[in-house]
TrEMBL record:
Protein name: Leucyl aminopeptidase family protein
Organism: Roseomonas populi
Record has Secreted as a keyword: no
Family: Belongs to the peptidase M17 family.
PANTHER family assigned: LEUCINE AMINOPEPTIDASE-RELATED (PTHR11963), PEPTIDASE B (PTHR11963:SF20)
Keywords annotated in UniProt: Aminopeptidase, Hydrolase, Manganese, Protease
CDD domains in alphabetical order: Peptidase_M17
Positions of the Cytosol aminopeptidase domain: 306-313
Gene Ontology molecular function terms on file: aminopeptidase activity
Lineage start: Bacteria, Pseudomonadati, Pseudomonadota, Alphaproteobacteria, Acetobacterales
Taxonomy, superkingdom: Bacteria
């Protein structure tokens, strides 16, 4: 997707536009006093009390003259602004006024204006926002999220391993980064677990690698994304219902490609290594089987207790590769376990980490930017559940409990000792539409990771 694809949400600076008066509950009396008496009376008699996200259109001589947006108690949540593009008259141009936060307004407006339109035209066009001063970084973050959403929303017929790798290439080309695709014999030798997971599909697996030197002496951040473009479950076949949304099983890869693009476009003083495992977990005579023993890049052998626990096998090789580069931090992201959704629901990505400072930074950043994460423990007492009599480790636990924790403990085996690491287990999907969050693919945690990384930079600079 080109950057121009996002301009439908924004108006040209300087264009004639109407005001959206954003107001908190505390600021409502002052706003009402400053309005035209007829508009103020209309607002009062409509029962408007500035609840977050409530939009009132103010009448004028030639139709709608202005709008009032309630912000609740705080102007900084992007979701308060997310309903504006479709609450305001179609195709009209607006600017923010009053107590609006420029970054939150820009982000919320752009995220709310998005609709997946590759195969079906939207019912109507959104209203457009004149970008406010102070919203430039938010615009970059919004565009990164929209690209990730678009990838997740694409059906697997149009987004296989090759296309996902091409998407990574596009990120590298737009940002002036290096790109390498590993496939064929090189993949089989260097990433044997990735090759085993993708071996059942006629669409060959590959690993996409992006390298970026934003700052020659900056810390190296490694991002490892699960890119399972469709997951049938393999020979341990999912049910029909279980397969319905498995086009989103590359949501971790999409999230980290978006994060990487945002970091590069905003010129973060870091170096980046992005590793995407692009595969399809399919059923065929070449598919891996239950109780097969696989070799990994690290040299550990893995018994396949269940072919539907394939994402952790992909990440095992990616984490090993990333660790070989001695990064300051490894982050992986994956739509990994249903257990995380049972524990936290669809909106809260589960965060696992071996480093307390990383945990504090990411959790605080998520709360501050309304992109919350929730930490779950790497409980050592469950590690033995991964024991295998035939291999160094099993890919699933021996008990039907704590599935997300056990999966994280599996991944930890492939992270070098002493390297800070964070694992994000996310849903990557909005089950229903809400302001700023239309139904479909979602880059949950992208803004939290970005803000958390920026918060960690001073500590790395001192070390």
């Amino acid at each position: 997707m080109a950057e121009a694809d996002f301009l439908w949400a924004l108006a040209m600076p300087g264009i004639n536009s109407r005001p959206v008066h954003a107001v908190t509950r505390q600021g409502l009396p002052e706003l009402t006093e400053g309005l035209d008496p007829s508009a103020a009376a209309f607002l009062r008699e409509s029962g408007f009390v500035a609840e977050a996200g409530r939009v009132m259109l103010l009448p004028g001589r030639e139709g709608v003259s202005a709008a009032v947006l309630g912000l609740g108690a705080s102007p900084t949540s992007p979701w308060a602004y997310g309903g504006l593009p479709f609450a305001l008259p179609e195709g009209t141009d607006w600017h923010m006024a009053g107590e609006a936060d420029p970054a939150a307004a820009t982000l919320g407006w752009m995220l709310g204006a998005y609709r997946f339109a590759r195969y079906k035209a939207p019912a109507r066009k959104p209203a457009r926002l004149v970008p406010p001063e102070g919203g430039a970084e938010a615009q970059v973050l919004a565009e990164a999220i929209l690209r990730a959403r678009e990838l997740i929303n694409l059906p697997a017929a149009d987004l296989g391993p090759a296309e996902l790798s091409d998407a990574a290439r596009g990120v590298a080309e737009r940002c002036g980064a290096g790109f390498e695709e590993i496939a064929g014999d090189a993949l089989a030798q260097g990433f044997p677990a990735v090759a085993a997971v993708g071996g059942g599909s006629h669409r060959a697996p590959r690993v996409a690698v992006i390298r970026w030197e934003g700052s020659a002496d900056g810390p190296l951040i490694a991002l490892c994304g699960k890119g399972v473009c469709f997951d049938t479950g393999g020979l341990d076949l999912k049910s029909a219902d279980g397969m319905k949304r498995m086009k989103k099983d590359m949501g971790g890869a999409a999230l980290l490609l978006g994060l990487a693009e945002a970091l590069m476009r905003l010129r973060a003083p870091i170096r980046l290594l992005v590793v995407i495992g692009a595969v399809e977990n399919a059923v065929s005579a070449m598919a891996m089987r239950p109780l097969d023993v696989l070799r990994t890049r690290k040299g550990l052998t893995v018994e396949v207790g269940n072919t539907d626990a394939e994402g952790r096998l992909v990440l095992a090789d990616l984490l090993t590769f990333a660790g070989e580069h001695q990064p300051a931090l490894i982050i992986d992201a994956a739509t990994l376990t249903g257990a995380a959704r049972v524990a936290l629901g669809p909106d809260l990505p589960a965060l696992f980490t071996n480093d307390e400072s990383v945990a504090r930074a990411l959790l605080a950043a998520g709360e501050a930017c309304h992109d919350a994460l929730w930490r779950l423990p790497l409980h050592e007492g469950y590690a033995s559940w991964l024991d295998s009599s035939a291999a160094d480790i099993n890919n699933v636990g021996s008990r039907p409990m704590a599935g997300s924790i056990v999966a994280a403990l599996f991944l930890r085996r492939f992270v070098p000792d002493g390297v800070p690491w964070a694992h994000l287990d996310l849903y990557a999907w909005n089950d229903s539409a809400r302001p700023g969050r239309p139904e479909g693919g979602e880059a949950m945690g992208l803004r939290a990771l970005h803000a958390g990384l920026m918060a960690l930079l001073p500590a790395w600079a001192r070390s």
